[in-house]
Amino acid sequence: MASTKSYAAYDSSSKLKPYDFNRRKVGPKDVQIDILFCGVCHSDIHMAHNDWGMSVYPLVPGHEIIGRVTNVGQDVQNFSIGELVGVGCMIDSCRECSACEQDLEQHCEKGMIMTYGSPDPFGKDTITQGGYSTQIVVDHEFVLKVSEDLDTKAVAPLLCAGITTYSPLRQWNVKAGDKVGVIGLGGLGHMGVKLAVAMGAEVVMITRSQEKGEDAKRLGASDVLVSTDEEQMLAHHGSFDFLLNTIPVKHDITPYIPLLKLGKAMAVVGASLTELNTMPLAFGRRIVAGSLIGGIKETQEMLDFCAQHNIVSDVEMIDMQDINAAYDRVMRSDVKYRFVIDMQSLRDQ
Question: Is the pTM of this model over 0.85?
Fold first, then answer.
């Protein structure tokens, strides 16, 4: 057992506070990782606050993990001590169902084991604990290789925001010359812009804010469409090959549907309630689809793609002790575009 420092939510309303616990012993197929950096995802806040009604406490959030291997089990051949690695939103699945056989472990029919907040298959009556901690032990099949050529701290959000936007772009075959609209510019949206541009698409930022649109141009977008401007929206009707909707709050998606060409799709990746009038779907044979992170194989593909194109997230670094202030800022959309925790600050505490 390895003594581990962390920050945890003790209930749905209190601030996150220090929490010491033990990680399991390294098994034959395990990789032990010293965590260097961990991204802060809005999902962490939802889980800490029990917004989805599934949280068990104490809860250590964090599923955008970058670190170095410190130990490997006797059966592990694909990782070595000192190697730079990542861990994303899940750390296990049944590996036997039809979804797992298709490398879609996030849709495991028995339920994926999330990096935190899931029943821990290695502990009785315990839950998995995440990356707001000094170390983690993970089955080698759910550990990812990370390029040393990228800015290590800025790689962390790729493990969630990166794969969440990469997967639907690949699923709907976005390619060079396609016109792609990214709806909403936040942690997810800014990665959608960068990735779609790297795929060769003409990217249009669709936003209510002209100011955000201008920042999207810095990220690589070629144009800005202000969604509250009816004349602008009408001018773009029927012109998009794909729409990536990253809005994380309740909204009406109906006005965006007519922007799609005949038979084209909008993928919704923001976890929120939406409203939809189906008329524009029927009359344009258009598609609204959902997408949930990505499987391990696709996540590794995304990391390799980002290394090839030198893509990382725009991040703001914080100490572990500043996590509660960071949560407040995320809820006010006051970050460009992801917080990342320097875990040395936790070790030094």
Answer: yes
